């Protein structure tokens, strides 16, 4: 495993979020996967305090400020857990949680 996602999988995504990263400068060879995914209808959102080169071609640019990123991801995790674990048990999601996370020991 690496600390970055496999960029070839961007093409198979329906929603991509880039957070405080200028992909054009840091992952130049991989940016083409974003362009290919967008032609297939993938939504691309950039969370960055500055309007970078990547923000030029995204669907939505959110100029996030210091401290807001934690609140945003906590809210996103809340929605995911509520809809796929608490309100209704989605078998694939529950299996994923048991295999790859420590959530069953925390809740």
TrEMBL record:
GO terms for cellular component: membrane. It holds the Pfam family Molybdopterin. InterPro entries: Mopterin_OxRdtase, Prok_molybdopt-oxidoreductase. GO terms for molecular function: oxidoreductase activity. Residues 6-87 form the Molybdopterin oxidoreductase domain. PANTHER family: RESPIRATORY NITRATE REDUCTASE, RESPIRATORY NITRATE REDUCTASE 2 ALPHA CHAIN. This is Nitrite oxidoreductase alpha subunit.
